[in-house]
Amino acid sequence: MQWRSIVVGLLVLRLVVSCALWLIFGLGPSWGFDFPIKFTFSLHKIELLQNADQATTKPTAWSQHMYEDRNPQPKTCSKISGDSPKKFYLSFLRDARDEYDKKYSSFPDALKVKMRGMARDMFYFGYDNYMKFAFPEDELNPIACEGRGPDVLNPSNININDVLGNYSLTLIDALDTLLVLGNVTEFHRAVKLVIDTVSFDKDSTVQVFEANIRILGSLISSHILLTDPRQPFGDIELKDYDNELLHLAHDLAVRLLPAFENTSTGIPYPRVNLKKGVPPDSINETCTAGAGSLLVEFGILSRLVGDSTFEWVARRAVKALWDLRSNETGLLGNVVNIQTGQWVGKQSGLGAGMDSFYEYLLKSYILFGENEDYKMFTAAYESIQSHLRRGREACNEGEGDPPLYVNVNMFNGQIMNTWIDSLQAFFPGLQVLNGDVENAICLHAFYYAIWKRFGALPERYNWQLQAPDVLFYPLRPELVESTYLLYQATKNPFYLHVGMDILESLEKNTKVRCGYATLHHVVDKSKEDRMESFFLSETCKYLYLLFDEDNPLHKSGYKYVFTTEGHVVPIDQRFRQKSWEEQVPCEEPRNEPKANTSNCERISEERRFGLPLKSMYMRQIDHMVGLS
Ligand code: DMJ
User: Fold this and answer.
1) Interval between CA 268 and ligand 1 midpoint (Å)
2) Which of 150, 418, 427, 534 is 20 to 30 A from residue 229's alpha carbon, by CA?
3) Do residues 258 and 278 touch, judged by C-beta distance below 8 A?
């Protein structure tokens, strides 16, 4: 008799454990993921695209149905009664499902306040320690409690030198997060510090893209918020502020301009030396995101200073890349030669090397209202849906695997490898902006399932092996960003739970003596002594905003766009006007192959500037546009 009870007991235990694993992790057999819950959707198109000035987001009706079980339990499912293991198992399932419903269908206000406080503390632990141990250097080494600047001993260490320019990177990148956290006093102090101490006259060779999104983007964002006549963050006017942040942004942008010189396609060089221009040994190859994600910052700067140069070079780069897309698939590759226009990297995907190219087509349209940008975005989105998206047609119904976006050859759409990267986790956020909430929910759920397994996102995840391919996690924001945007679009408490989970795992797995450290290995949780600046500018900002319903960004009635580095920019009529003349349209010469820089462009360039491009951005430009 006794042995029978032991066998039954073991059987029950086994069922309970496997059932719990299925319910909690929902990991299925194919992509390494299957939805533990069933989504039903009532799609809505966010009005942002129809009329950016009156954009609104509404909660959707699917929220009530979101947690339906994918295999609804039979109605006969009953409570534990007596000694039947089967009954016990079924009732466990039902109770667990009830638990699941209970857990995800609400999020108490008090918990929201607690999580908001935790996100705030997380930011200040990183920021205060940076100020204490690292400023004026670029980054904080959070384990050694010391600062980090460019790797001068090893100039080819681009992992460091692309980003660190010896210009107090972390302080600049964190500026507008201080404002989002409502700390006007520290924001003012930080702005003054930047004005008094930062100079770009440095012998630093940095990546144009990184300097643009982290430094230029932050400077113009803070300048705009400081001088916004509507003052949505309360009275944040800074006494005696004389547009210094804009001057700094302009100075930096002028130093980046040599990247656009001597390139036969118009696609910029990837790196410049801030003092000397493009290094003589510069490579002629750049990634698509690096060259094609400058338009938001350069466009705003142009419109602020009334000088079309910046927007013009950024647009020319986007157009040149766009013209090189495949005729067959409409896709672009990830690495291009800026002189020949040949694709060196033929991989087309949504992650590293390509991500923000797509993002900026849509965000440029939202900000500037240029139809051309939206046309490019929608065409790109269609190609992505046709060639990159694999799996079943609907997120949650039908045969086959849940949808996934893979890396393919740009010319024939064939799969090139079996990994996806963590940068791609930004894409659901972009899908939300595009009104494709159903696909956003699916892709986000896929990434969240990976996060749940490791308490972080491995840099690359192999969907075939269901295992990480590249194991580090440098505190990236992409999953939090999409979680925040999905919460804004749906108001479904599920996303608050996701945010809480992310916050808690960051706290548990990455917190060290003086800040938060890069995970070297998402499985054994070993660490590297680095805290990238985007942790403060994006990861903490989105986490805080997720739990701060009353933030002026949500309650002021004005609309904002986040740059790819998470910097806040209001959607403003000012950015929809140009103070310069429109480019004169002219015809392409007939029967001649279309050159990358056409006669048409060259003529109009000279017409508009009266100067060849080369001499147009001498330092005196400051004088020309009235900044000095
Ligand atoms: C950030 O610098 C930006 O979000 C960029 O677009 C991609 N990489 C990092 C964060 O992962």
Assistant:
1) 19
2) 534
3) yes
